Predict the 3D structure of the following.
Amino acid sequence: MLSARNVVKHYGGVQALKGVDFDIYRGTVTTLFGENGAGKSTLMKILSGVEQPTDGQLILDGEPVRFASTVEAQHRGISIIHQELSLAPNMSVRDNIFMGRELRRAGGVDYAEEARQAAALMTELEEDIHPLTKVGDLRVGQQQIVEIARALSVDARILIMDEPTSALSATEVEVLFKVIRDLTARGVAIVYISHHLEEALEITDHAVVLRDGSMTAKAERADIDLAWIVRNMVGENFDLGSPPTGYEFGDTLLSVQSLTVPDDSNVDRAAVDHLSLDVRAGEVVCIYGLMGAGRTELLEALAGASQVSDGKVMLEGRDVTHMDIAQRIAAGLVLVPEDRQRDGLVQTMTVGRNLSLASIGAFVKNLFLSNSGERGLVDDSIRDVHVKTDGPGAMIGSLSGGNQQKVVIGKMVTTDPKVILLDEPSRGIDIGAKAEVFKLLAERAKQGLGVVYSTSEVNECLSIAHRIIVMGRGRIVAEFGPDVSKEQIMAASGESVAA
Amino acid sequence: MSDTRAATNTKGKSGLFANGFDPVGLLLEGRAFFGLIAIIVVFSYLSPNYFTFDNLLTMSSHVAIYGLLGLGMLLVILNGGIDLSVGSTLGLCGVMAGFFIHGVELAPLGVTLYPPIWVVAVLVCGVGAFVGLVNGILIARFKVPPFVATLGSLYAVRGIALLITGGLTYNNLGGKEALGNTGFDWLGFNRLFDIPIGVLVMIVVALILSVVLNKTAFGRWLYASGGNERAARLSGVPVKRVKISVYVLSGICAAIAGLVLTSELTSAGPTAGTTYELTAIATVVIGGAALTGGIGNVRGTLLGAFVIGFLSDGLVIVGVSAYWQMVFTGAVIVLAVLLNSIEYSGRAKKKSSNDGGATPSPQKTESAGTAASGGARQVPQKTAG
Ligand SMILES: Nc1ncnc2c1ncn2[C@@H]1O[C@H](COP(=O)(O)OP(=O)(O)OP(=O)(O)O)[C@@H](O)[C@H]1O
Ligand SMILES: [Mg+2]
């Protein structure tokens, strides 16, 4: 249906794509795999008119085409869900879905009809979101659902999804897959990018692997398995490992006592409800739960980013409940936030300055910033989390999505914390990078770091955690050791195990 | 595995940390600079009196006022805010200077105090800082949008200046030898190495601010909180303190400008500085700063001040009518900013069309980031002013 022929893309001196051929077929799901920075998003941006190729050709229904803009691509039936959310947070779900394509009727916009369609889309995606909710009030995962709904509402013939599920729970992914199957049955072509390899494998018909801007492999579903993908992506086989062992836990570092966080949108319910939790030195605690379980609220409250209505937070026996964020960072309690665009990165600054932002105190010498101090810190940090960049002077926006995520993680690891809270840190990073992050956390844990790792991927829990806590409705609903099975965790979270 | 990933490039490193000379960065900024040259060339051609030493001195005294206001405004704009009250603050501070020079009567004691000039200057800066503090607290603590809070002060502060003088102007600012408060005209009339004191004051303020912006934690905090306040806060940046500080600093800059202007005019009128807030915004914007925050530097703002000052004086010298002066000034402001944004427009346009023209805010910041990356190494350079 749509083909790319020998597409090349340069960004300044960086060659993001080196002559790629790519085909999309009617009624099938083509998945695109590749490391962070391999060029996946770039290729999709070219197919959907966001970027122009430096060289090469696009062929739609047998004839060469050029898309000068996304609007043009949309007219030809191509719709894209971007890796980075592109919603207007100040507007409602309904207005976001129909932004730029408002339904008209005599005398203005037909808001009622828009709301009805928006509600229908939400029902289709089995999501309980009112069309008039402000998008800024939604959690990342819900925003992602809105983003998907917007792409669906276009009625595209070709639908490109660049990591649509990075913030979704397993159930929601199931629902999305159901929708995707419906679409393909109607003849829609889908391109699907994900770093959740098993998940992608479940839905794929064709798999294509990109590596360093070139296509390295291509195969039908029947001929591939997980190992094939990993082998072609990174050139070797490996797994995420298992929780670090061979040492004793130290003293209790973090002690949360009966913590309660009010829910802004619902006064009857607390987002975190009298929750108590201890984390010891060297221990990796994984918090698993569905969206809305209160994980983000818990971690934000621990980091001092939100109001607490009751309870206490102790760090190394010190009461930090009334400290602000900066004081907690100084005391050694840091948060890697969930939403990298909104909370993690300063887009107007360079990679280096983003990495050093939380550790400025470490390289101030008599009032002034020390260049050499900062450079050392930034270089270490880039090495620690393996950021693929032109150098610390590159703007943060020039990094691929996964590499931006690594910067968010690196920034906080660099502060040399005692307890690190990570909220869905693996969003968008490839399997190799994930393994590196796990290795880093495991190493630091051995040296006595306490880790609280929130995720909605069961496999991640099993590969890193000494203790797995399942949250639901703001409380701890179950607690497991490292030997638990995937099914047990999911059952405890109230998720259908069928998934 | 790890060695392929660890292959993070080392070549571009000098970019972030280099502070020295950077020809490419200069060229990019060059556009405003060439604009300035063009202005000088055109007016020199039109009038033989333009490019003379005396006129240059006169013009640079005007530039000093715009520059001082602009530098304060730059801090506020870097923070993503706006300060509409600087013109009024300038007026009030001039009036306060006149008020102090004419003696502070302490009624219960039956004495009138005549503070020495340096005390007057400190007190006046205190007044400016106070106005800024009120703005800052309204904005940071009570979450009043900057535009609204400072619009309120624009009116209120001007009103106070009028109240103090009853609408009149302090004329005799010479002070009296016997009272030990002479010397106020030094600011406006004296020269050091042939350079007017006002200009030197501007240069000193500019140097201090450029060190603060590039070499201190405060500067880094300011760029970060202007670029993304939430991310900055979560990284431990004291965003509220930064915010209040920039308005206080802007108030102080306005106070200094008020002192210089009052001294140059040898009179303190309550309406001095009306609409100067707009000129200040123009200097910052011509200097390449983004009104969304996080981007801009001292060098650019100074350049902007020269463009505005040299242009408006030039128009007066060649005898363009006052009405046309406004038209020209407006055109030049837009033109300068247009030139500044030309390199960005290509990509920015594509980005914003994602959503059929409506640009949601996350998109905006992203396009700022990606657009800048076209010249990845020049941008940090700009901020390293
Ligand atoms: N605007 C840009 N300016 C400069 N370089 C860019 C820009 N956008 C992308 N790149 C570079 O192009 C390469 C490919 O990036 P792309 O975003 O396509 O990766 P990706 O495969 O989507 O990775 P991820 O899995 O992390 O999302 C990277 O090296 C990236 O640094
Ligand atoms: Mg990507």
About this structure: Residues A 11-12, 14, 16, 34, 36-42, 83, 398-403, 428, 430; B 370, 373 surround adenosine-5'-triphosphate (ligand 1) (CB under 6 Å). Chain A has two domains: 2-234, 252-498. Chain A has a mean pLDDT of 87.
